[in-house]
Amino acid sequence: MKWGQKKRFAKGKRHRRGRRPLNIVFITPTTGLRRFPPYRWGGRVYGQSNSITGPLILGGILKRAGHHVEVYEELNAGVNYRPLLKKADVLCLSCMTSTAPRGYELADLFHRKGHAHVIMGGMHPTILPEEALRHADQVIVGEGEKVILDVVEGRRTEAIVEGEPVCNLDEVPFPDYSILKTPAQAANVLSTRGCPFRCTFCTTSRMFAPYRQRSVDNVIAEIRMYKDLGFQYLNFEDDNFTADKERAKEICRRMIAEDLTFKETFFFGRTDLAQDEELLNLLHDAHLTRVLIGIESLNQKALNSIHKAQSIANIRAAAKACEKHKIRLIASIVLGLDDNP
After folding, report:
1. pLDDT at 114 over 90
2. Where in the chain is the domain with CATH 3.20.20.70?
3. Which residues, 6 or more positions from 278, have their beta carbon under 8 angstroms from its beta carbon?
4. What is the sign of the dihedral through the CA atoms of 244, 245, 250 and 253?
5. Residue 213: which residues within 8 A CB-CB, separation 6 or more?
6. Residue 335: CB atoms within 10 Å
């Protein structure tokens, strides 16, 4: 089918979409290896199953507008696509670069065997929207909260829809776990968007800009909701939860004082957390005892070349500090090593 033909067909579906509640399916795809059951079992060593917050926030907005919404995370369980192909009026796919080929495969499947209008978003479509449009009817670039309802209901008809950053993150609704159809043992909290650092290789500070924080009261209210829902595990999905150390301390103090700690809480941090003994003690006492610190190289020359503001000494100090405070450094991300150790 030529692009012009698909565009006219999509407009016809838009006209029908505004007349009744829609069946909307969100899918976060993953690679073939990660859909392999033994890989999912092995993933339990890394942490508890969870679902990214974006589809749960956007899906909640659509649900409150009267639509029927289901969210699936391929990483956590197999998905039976046969009934979804029949009933989905709108398919929303959230893709990173590693999962984009699978996302394109699913988009093509729903076009070929279903009737859904396909919308793509996330990191990879934001960076390469024209590529994503070879498979999708529309692409949302950037943050979607302000545009998702208009796109789904057909009031925004352009092929590439520019999302708008939410200035006041306290206005963003909490993720709606009632629409999630795959397992999630840990609830995810995103208390900030973006990162105050702008490492040359990183997409986060470019997709989520400027760097914004939710109020501590708003974050605590969300955590309290997860306690009430019965979650025993929590993840802070901020790209750098300890970027603002005083704010991180206040969140930990409130969690401790209000009995909002979980069996275990995961967070992302930087090596500079090793320099703050008070912060390390509060992280431990609030049960934030699993941390991932991004380590892009184990060679100082390589770190300097990508303008990473950390040294090999910082990495070693962070590892020792985490061990001392019983905070488990569970993984590192190594993009490459050069030949001069």
Report:
1. yes
2. 185-331
3. 249
4. positive
5. 169, 191, 192, 244, 247
6. 11
Tokens of residue 323, six digits: 């061990």
Helix (H) or strand (E) holding 293: strand 290-293
User: Would you state the structure tokens that stand for residue 280, as one six-digit string?
Assistant: 């390390």
CATH number of 3-162: 3.40.50.280
Instruction: Supply the Cα-derived Rg of the chain in whole angstroms.
Output: 21
Q: Give the whole-angstrom CA distance, residue 303 versus residue 290.
A: 24
CATH numeric code, 185-331: 3.20.20.70
* CA distances (Å), origin 47, targets 7, 44, 178, 225: 42, 5, 22, 21
How do residues 181-190 score in pLDDT, each as one tens digit? 999 999 999 9
- State the amino acid at position 68 in one-letter form: H
Nearest alpha carbon to residue 78 among 223, 2, 183: 183
CA 9 to chain centre: 31
- Are the C-beta atoms of 333 and 296 separated by less than 8 Å? yes
Measure the CA–CA gap between 136 and 110, rounded to whole angstroms.
Answer: 10
Output the pLDDT for position 118.
98
User: Helices then strands (H, E): number in the chain?
Assistant: 14, 13
- Could you tell me the sign of the dihedral formed by the alpha carbons of 281, 285, 288, 292, in that order? positive
CA 321 – CA 154 distance, rounded (Å): 53
- The encoded tokens of residue 216 equal 């501590």
Q: What is the mean pLDDT of residues 13-40?
A: 77
Alpha-carbon distance of 279 to 58, in angstroms, equals 33
Report if pTM > 0.85. yes
Residues of the chain with CATH 3.40.50.280: 3-162
| Strand partners for 119 | 92, 138
Distances (CA, A) of 304 to 161, 243, 301: 37, 20, 5
Q: List the one residue out of 124, 214, 122, 209 whose CA is nearest residue 165.
A: 209
